[in-house]
């Protein structure tokens, strides 16, 4: 920016030229050279920011952090330069008509370059999966919060129209709305060739589950943008493809929160989790072993429950959602306990009471029955242990709960059965049938679902 003395001289010169028609006999239009010089200055100043956008943004992907977009810096500097240029022109160009004409020519080229960079970024976002194009919400928020009011004021004060910029932001809005639909389609599994292919061999939390919850948490970062967009498409509109011509852009208001927006955000998130549950149930059918399918659902439902109980999602979901997933977790815990039923059945003692008295002497049939029970228990326990040590429960608290539930049933029952018969003469070779003591049994159960297994 020139010094105050230079500014005064330039202003005097401009005034003289503008009013010298009677003195020199013709009018001198100096707005073109003014615009050419100032426009080149603006472009040179902004070009490095434009170039940095193309080299960084498309590589952000799911690791994108709020506020890190190079385009945000570009947008901020562009608006500041436009404001500065308008202020400069007011000091130099006293004639309002000439000033408006000069500003249109001055701002035009840098505006075109800014819009071109934005359009290229939007094109990249449209090609990316919804989880990697989240930066469009950041662009929208920056524009709505920090830029639009200033640009609207400039437009009114200096009679400037920035139609290209308005169209750019409409394409950003369209892309953001499209991501809602793409997100729901992804959860429904409609973008997967085979929904049961992408399941782990150990039943751990599925990638779809973690991706879904991570995306929902990231959306909350731009809640003030998301809620008005959901109002725009209405309840359930996220299940329909978005067409730009059907969007009432002028009716979208990003000015603060509303009860309707909050309700639609909650409905959107609940719908997403409902669809996720359906997809998880479908995926669980890809496991040939029912117990592994149960562990898979247990891990995923528990992961969802943990996430909706924690910030920021706990501020969105109500108690009903938490209760629902609590019941789903409990159902899978109960179903898992059923996998130990063969062991439990072999520890049921039918020789304890006969005719109301404890039976001390065992008949041949009783001795064979005890042998079979020990033998069958060992076989069932070994098979369950061998199989389930390959399963995973990554949540330490859940793993401890599952193991504790198993031990609370198996260890006492086995202990009573062992104490009852190890001192009897059910066999001449006890070591053939009594494979475990209570301590070893408990230690082995403790090794179920180990992360290193």
From TrEMBL:
<dbReference type="GO" id="GO:0006887">
    <property type="term" value="P:exocytosis"/>
</dbReference>
<keyword id="KW-0653">Protein transport</keyword>
<protein>
    <recommendedName>
        <fullName>Exocyst complex protein EXO70</fullName>
    </recommendedName>
</protein>
<dbReference type="GO" id="GO:0005546">
    <property type="term" value="F:phosphatidylinositol-4,5-bisphosphate binding"/>
</dbReference>
<keyword id="KW-0813">Transport</keyword>
<dbReference type="GO" id="GO:0000145">
    <property type="term" value="C:exocyst"/>
</dbReference>
<comment type="similarity">
    <text>Belongs to the EXO70 family.</text>
</comment>
<dbReference type="InterPro" id="IPR016159">
    <property type="entry name" value="Cullin_repeat-like_dom_sf"/>
</dbReference>
<dbReference type="InterPro" id="IPR004140">
    <property type="entry name" value="Exo70"/>
</dbReference>
<comment type="function">
    <text>Involved in the secretory pathway as part of the exocyst complex which tethers secretory vesicles to the sites of exocytosis. Also plays a role in the assembly of the exocyst.</text>
</comment>
<dbReference type="InterPro" id="IPR046364">
    <property type="entry name" value="Exo70_C"/>
</dbReference>
<dbReference type="GO" id="GO:0015031">
    <property type="term" value="P:protein transport"/>
</dbReference>
<dbReference type="Pfam" id="PF03081">
    <property type="entry name" value="Exo70_C"/>
</dbReference>
<keyword id="KW-0268">Exocytosis</keyword>
<dbReference type="GO" id="GO:0005935">
    <property type="term" value="C:cellular bud neck"/>
</dbReference>
<feature type="domain" description="Exocyst complex subunit Exo70 C-terminal">
    <location>
        <begin position="70"/>
        <end position="446"/>
    </location>
</feature>
């Amino acid at each position: 920016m020139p010094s105050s003395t230079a500014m005064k001289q330039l202003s005097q010169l401009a005034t003289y030229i503008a009013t010298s028609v009677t003195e020199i006999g013709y009018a001198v239009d100096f707005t073109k050279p003014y615009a050419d010089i100032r426009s080149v200055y603006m472009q040179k100043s902004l070009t490095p920011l434009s170039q940095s956008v193309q080299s960084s943004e498309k590589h952000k992907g799911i690791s994108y952090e709020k506020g890190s977009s190079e385009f945000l810096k570009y947008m901020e500097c562009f608006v500041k330069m436009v404001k500065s240029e308008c202020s400069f022109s007011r000091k130099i160009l006293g004639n309002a008509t000439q000033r408006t004409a000069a500003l249109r020519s001055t701002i035009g080229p840098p505006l075109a370059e800014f819009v071109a960079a934005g359009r290229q970024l939007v094109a990249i976002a449209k090609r990316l999966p919804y989880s990697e194009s989240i930066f469009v919400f950041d662009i929208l928020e920056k524009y709505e919060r920090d830029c639009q009011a200033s640009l609207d004021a400039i437009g009114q004060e200096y009679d400037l129209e920035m139609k290209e910029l308005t169209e750019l932001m409409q394409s950003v809005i369209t892309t953001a709305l499209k991501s809602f639909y793409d997100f729901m389609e992804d959860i429904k599994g409609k973008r997967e060739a085979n929904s049961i292919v992408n399941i782990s061999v150990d039943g751990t939390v599925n990638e779809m589950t973690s991706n879904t919850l991570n995306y929902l948490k990231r959306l909350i970062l731009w809640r003030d943008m998301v809620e008005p967009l959901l109002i725009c498409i209405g309840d359930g509109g996220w299940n329909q493809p978005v067409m730009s011509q059907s969007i009432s852009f002028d009716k979208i208001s990003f000015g603060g929160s509303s009860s309707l927006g909050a309700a639609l955000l909650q409905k959107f998130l609940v719908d997403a989790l409902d669809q996720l549950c359906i997809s998880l149930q479908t995926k669980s059918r890809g496991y040939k072993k029912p117990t592994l399918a149960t562990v898979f659902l247990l891990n995923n439902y528990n992961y969802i429950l943990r996430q909706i109980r924690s910030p920021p999602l706990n501020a969105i979901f109500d108690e009903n959602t938490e209760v629902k997933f609590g019941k789903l977790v409990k159902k899978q815990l109960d179903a898992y306990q059923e996998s130990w039923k063969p062991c439990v059945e072999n520890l049921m003692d039918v020789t304890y009471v006969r005719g109301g008295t404890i039976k001390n002497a065992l008949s041949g049939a009783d001795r064979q029955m005890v042998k079979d029970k020990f033998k069958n228990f060992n076989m069932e326990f070994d098979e369950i242990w061998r199989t389930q040590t390959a399963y995973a429960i990554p949540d330490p608290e859940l793993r401890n709960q599952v193991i504790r539930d198993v031990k609370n049933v198996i260890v006492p029952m086995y202990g009573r059965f062992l104490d009852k018969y190890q001192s009897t003469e059910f066999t001449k070779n006890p070591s053939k049938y009594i494979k475990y003591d209570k301590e070893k049994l408990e230690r082995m159960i403790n090794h179920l679902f180990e992360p290193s297994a």
